[in-house]
Design brief:
- The chain has 4 domains: 105 residues, Glutaredoxin, CATH 3.40.30; 204 residues, NADH-ubiquinone oxidoreductase 51kDa subunit (Rossmann fold, 3-Layer(aba) Sandwich); 84 residues, Ubiquitin-like (UB roll) (Roll); 85 residues, NADH-ubiquinone oxidoreductase 51kDa subunit, iron-sulphur binding domain (de novo design (two linked rop proteins), Up-down Bundle), CATH 1.20.1440.230.
- The protein has 24 helices and 14 strands.
- The strands form 3 sheets. It has a 5-stranded mixed beta sheet with strand order 2-1-3-4-5, covered by helices on one side.
């Protein structure tokens, strides 16, 4: 059996290696920047470092997402002594010039410098994304140098499972997958469940259009997800876990698999972790991209090799779940909060955010904004701060119309509510939800009935078909929306649309159907005149 890793020794050795380089270049290698041309830019910097004989003075590090995806590819240069410069839109030519300018071979570049002290960055409070854009995701040593696995070591060597559960409960952490269920309560239910075999599962089946928060965490800091899941297993008495990742995230799957192998080699997974009695194994399972598999009972059915379809509850998963055993599912972002809570304590975590919604939330900003990308902000921040300050507002002189939160299950929030704090209760009062963290901004060129039709088409296609209200109801709602949007709808159709939304929401089996009407209901509530303007007289239709 391999000797367990000495986390402190590895961290010191890694930091000593870094200190030898006068310049360290961190180049974003995330999916977003790769799609913008980060690969050629990285290769150009690598060649320039080699050709100029700077391999002993410049360290080039591939990192994860730095956040401001719309300005990618992004590159950060750190000089010994603390000075830092960030560059945007870095192509191969600019990449080569960056190396030259920082090693004295050319005057500094100004055209591509990005203000990394601006509102987009300054308003953030990074907990989940603390290491994104900082570490090399493919190197365990890089993660350990930034504190990886210290919380696991603390938990399994100095705390009882009950103490870990209590620390999570006291933190007030709520599920970041959308429902906002208290994490500590869920952990205590599994901990108290009877059974020789228990499972813990990380839900990485992120399916909301425009959302990529969980993908980023899994790609850019896979060891944080592994550590959070391992702590959950220790606290609840589980010895086996799964990370369920949608097939559209191949890089996340690759990096998680590599991280799991590395952790196992260093006795951070497997038998007798860090020479304790704790044993835990993790396996990555790939989903086929069904949106309904974000629902926990459907997800477990998929892991079992069955068609992903929800089940009636009770029994709840903590009583009878995966393979008939007590099981617990946490969202990837939820688990990524756990190491920081155990390391720094529940009081520290509660000092961030609001009383009812402690901590931070990661959002994917998309739509009509100057700045789009990933942000992590304290709960309670206003929508206006996110959209106007961090997002830079609507570009090209356009006017803001609505912000859609919560993905297909969320609602559309109009301008008069932009000062609303972003927390679970406040968004719910507006007819929307936090969701997993997608935030889409729309300007005054957008038709809200067409927005509702788009999301209903998504829900209609993604319905598993098990229950009639969702299977048939979403089709009927979409048909009515299509009639209205194409100028064929009547007042009677509008009344029937509202009635159907209530029926589908109140009678569907799982969260997909129950929340599918939300975009329709919220747009009807706040933008009803847009629907009414599209209606025609019944007599005209009959004629």
């Amino acid at each position: 059996m391999a000797t367990p890793i000495d986390l402190h020794e590895v961290a010191i050795r890694e930091l000593e290696t870094r200190s030898r380089y006068p310049w360290r270049i961190k180049a974003c290698a995330s999916t977003a920047c790769q799609s913008a041309g980060a690969g050629p830019a990285y290769s150009a910097m690598e060649r320039e470092i080699s050709n100029s004989g700077q391999t002993q003075t410049v360290q080039l590090v591939p990192t994860g997402c730095m956040g401001l995806c719309s300005r990618g590819p992004l590159v950060r240069v750190l000089e010994r002594g603390g000075d830092e410069t960030m560059y945007q839109h870095v192509d191969a030519e600019i990449g080569s010039d960056i190396v030259k300018s920082h090693t004295g071979q050319r005057i500094p570049i100004q055209s591509n410098v990005l203000d990394h002290h601006g509102p987009f960055f300054a308003e953030q409070r990074r907990v989940v994304l603390a290491n994104a854009g900082i570490i090399d995701p493919d190197r365990l040593e890089s993660a350990v140098a930034h504190g990886a696995y210290l919380a696991l070591e603390k938990a399994i060597t100095t705390m009882t499972p009950d103490q870990v559960v209590e620390e999570v409960r006291a933190s007030g952490l709520r599920g970041r997958g959308g429902a906002g269920y208290p994490t500590g309560t869920k952990w205590s239910l599994l901990a108290g469940a009877a059974g020789d075999q228990k499972y813990v599962i990380a839900n990485g089946d992120e399916g909301d259009p425009g959302a990529y928060m969980d993908r980023t965490v899994m790609e850019d800091d896979p060891h944080r997800v592994i550590e959070g899941l391992a702590i959950a297993a220790y606290a609840t008495g589980a010895n086996r876990g799964y990370i369920y990742v949608r097939a559209e995230y191949p890089k996340a799957v690759e990096r998680l698999d590599r991280a799991i192998r590395s952790a196992r080699r260093n006795r951070l997974l497997g038998r007798r972790i860090l020479e304790t009695d704790f044993t835990f194994e993790i396996e990555v399972r790939i989903g086929a991209g069904a949106f309904v598999c974000g629902e926990e009972t459907a997800l477990m059915a998929s892991i079992e090799g069955k068609r992903g379809m929800p089940k009636l509850r009770p029994p709840y998963p903590t009583e009878r779940g995966l393979f008939g055993n007590p099981s617990m599912i946490n969202n990837v972002e939820t688990l990524a909060n756990i190491p920081a809570i155990i390391d720094r304590g529940s009081e520290w975590f509660r000092s961030i955010g609001t009383e009812g919604s402690p901590g931070t939330k990661v959002f994917a900003l998309a739509g009509k904004l100057e700045n789009t990308g990933l942000i992590e902000v304290p709960m309670g921040i206003s929508l206006r701060t996110i959209i106007d300050d961090m997002g830079g507002g609507v570009p090209s002189g356009g006017a803001f119309k609505a912000a859609q939160t919560g993905g297909p299950s969320g609602g559309c929030i109009p301008e008069q509510f932009l000062d609303t704090p972003v927390d679970y209760a406040s968004l719910s009062e507006l007819g929307s939800i936090m969701g997993s963290g997608g935030l889409i901004v729309m300007d005054d060129t957008v038709s809200m009935p067409e927005v509702a039709r788009f999301f209903m088409e998504f829900c209609m296609d993604e319905s598993c078909g098990k229950c009639v209200p969702c299977r048939a109801g979403t089709v009927q709602i979409h048909g009515l929306l299509d009639k209205i949007c194409t100028g064929r709808g009547t007042a009677g159709d509008l009344a029937l649309l509202e009635e159907l939304c209530v029926v589908v929401r109140e009678t569907s089996l799982c969260g997909l159907g129950q929340s599918a009407p939300n975009p329709v209901v919220s747009t009807l509530h706040y933008f009803r005149p847009e629907y009414e303007e599209l209606l025609v007289d019944r007599e005209a239709v009959d004629a």
